[in-house]
Design a protein that fits this description.
6 helices, globular, 4 strands
Length: 150
């Protein structure tokens, strides 16, 4: 955990922090990136600005699920989420512990100031974030372990 950031439950003001790997059906969901599968390993191409989720946007991915093609952020669900410990996101803890960094520098990210993962784990989370696909049909063993709630 980043000592400077600490256990943040809310973003600036009273706005809840955003989960950067959320389901598009959650209230307040926004599109934050497009998953590029060209290299064989999925990698996120971040948008300059988040785009509010609409039915038309989700329909663009048919016949595959939107979470295979896009990454969404939405207000952290905390206690409703299987990854919530009661005070922290265990998913980002496992991602940082189990996955290698894929970026040497922090990727440009439009939600970093509101991101639960950054607030909790700082740049270590950001350097692993590009490889996270919410719905990965062929995850590595490490990705599967990181994504499995305990």
């Amino acid at each position: 955990m980043s000592a400077a950031r600490g256990h943040a439950c809310e973003g600036s003001g009273s706005t809840p922090l955003l989960c950067p790997s959320a389901q598009p059906t959650l209230a307040g969901a926004v599109l934050v990136g497009v998953v590029d599968h060209a290299s064989g390993e999925p990698e996120l191409a971040y948008l300059e600005e988040p785009i509010p989720v609409t039915e038309e946007l989700l329909a663009l991915t048919s016949p595959v699920r939107p979470t295979e093609v896009f990454r969404f952020a939405a207000p952290c669900q905390q206690g409703v989420c299987a990854h919530w410990s009661g005070s922290d996101c265990r998913l980002v803890e496992r991602i940082v512990d189990l996955l290698p960094a894929t970026a040497l520098t922090l990727p440009r990210c439009a939600i970093r100031g509101e991101c639960r993962w950054f607030a909790q784990s700082g740049g270590a989370a950001c350097r692993r974030c590009p490889q996270v696909v919410t719905q990965n049909e062929q995850p590595s063993d490490e990705m599967r372990e990181a994504a499995t709630p305990r």
